[in-house]
Amino acid sequence: MQPLQLFGYIFLAILVQVAILSVVAIVRHMKFFDFLKRFFSGTGIKPPEEPVLDTIKDISGFSENGSWSGLRDFYVTNKVFEDKDKNICSFYLSPVDGKPLADFKPGQFLTFQLDGAVKDGDAPLVRCYSLSDGPGGDSYRVSIKRVPPPADRPELPPGISSNHFHDNVKKGDVLKVRAPSGHFFLERGTSPVVLIGGGIGITPMLSMLVDALNSNTNREVWLFYGVRNSSEHAMKSHIEELAKEHDNFHLRVCYSAPKDWDKKGVDYQHKGRVDIDLLRLSLPFQVYDFYICGPRPMLESIVPGLEDWGVPDQRINYEAFGPASINRRSQKQEASGEEFLVTFAKSGISAVWNGSEETLLDFAESNGVAIPSGCRAGGCGSCETEIIEGEVAYNQSPDFDPEPGSCLLCVSRPKKNLVVEA
């Protein structure tokens, strides 16, 4: 073979490799279906029509942003404890099929179907956990706190789902997961934002914090984080490192019951709980967007306090864990409106709805009706209930589509007298 001919083959091989790498890069950095259109149009062949692309989406189960319908298998690629007492554990998840991860907004959650957490023959356990890292990574992360029996009711069982994750889920296991969803999230922007997390409510705050700091807008971010003491302080070194690296990030940690060895000014900044007085003393005078996640006492204190402080309703965003919804001032004004009779047929309980509760799920719980629930945000479908008579209105568009003739109690209200199968 002549040297010139050999050089030609080598040059051709290099061109082929460059072409392949270019195609891979294009597919990775642009929407897949846009790539298909451009590919076909570049060949002179008529590009696929939208219905054809929609059929491809339906067959593949994936949308343009990488989202998917139904359940998808994920490997647990790592398991890391995040606090001294090893009661908070992060689980890192990567898709078994190797396809791209779905985009998500910081603050949203994943829904898990935990077949192994229940006895054979029982309905699968469905639970939702907030994503605890910012979007754009090569894996998902959820950070889960082990839930013990209630302190005042030690005879009750501990949290089934959280203890199943801690005790039984290990690296290499496969979990069934629904795509990220949820209406509690931080939009990217430049306006100052205040993040308030109580206990394990820090998880969506972490996702929001990381995304805000990575968005290159120099957005002013305040994080108020309340825990009992250093034993429960999650991701302490990681959060402190972020505060050192970003001048626009202001960290305020509150210990309500510090240990003897916890040092104020080192481990935490304030003794006590996160409350409205601390916010008013700490925050310079300007307009903020507030995002709050925590237990009921925190929400019942801070949300009305912000309203009394004059913060506009649309700038107060919150998410509770457990049965912890609260009445906003706007909802209290609605409570004087029309009343409806709501009947829970299976439980044999009827009560008058007057608008004082935010959702039918809250209304059911306040009247002693036990309803299965997971996300409490219209994402998991756990509270789906058949409507026997009447009609409901949704406070927000649910991410989970209920069957015809059914509703999601966690995000709905009655529009007239209502009878449901619960």
What's the short version?
The chain has 422 residues and is an alpha/beta fold. The chain contains ten helices and 19 strands. It folds into four domains: 17-60, no CATH class; 72-181, Elongation Factor Tu (Ef-tu), domain 3, CATH 2.40.30; 193-325, Nucleotide-binding domain of ferredoxin-NADP reductase (FNR) module (Rossmann fold); 333-420, Beta-grasp domain (Ubiquitin-like (UB roll), Roll).
Report on the architecture of this protein.
- With 422 residues, the chain is α/β, with parallel strands linked by helices.
- Helix 5 (202-214) links the parallel strand 7 and strand 8 (221-227).
- The chain has helices spanning 3-29, 32-42, 50-60, 160-168, 202-214, 236-245, 276-282, 296-309, 329-334, 360-366; strands spanning 72-81, 88-95, 109-114, 125-130, 140-145, 174-181, 193-198, 221-227, 249-255, 270-271, 289-294, 316-320, 340-344, 349-353, 384-389, 392-394, 406-408, 412-414, 418-420.
- The protein is 27% helix and 25% strand.
- The protein is globular, with a radius of gyration of 25 Å.
- It has 10 helices and 19 strands.
- The chain folds into 4 domains: 17-60, no CATH class; 72-181, Beta Barrel (Elongation Factor Tu (Ef-tu), domain 3), CATH 2.40.30; 193-325, 3-Layer(aba) Sandwich (Rossmann fold); 333-420, Roll (Ubiquitin-like (UB roll)).
- The strands form 4 sheets. Strands 4-3-6-1-2-5 form a 6-stranded antiparallel beta sheet. The protein has a 6-stranded parallel beta sheet with strand order 10-9-8-7-11-12, with helices on both faces.
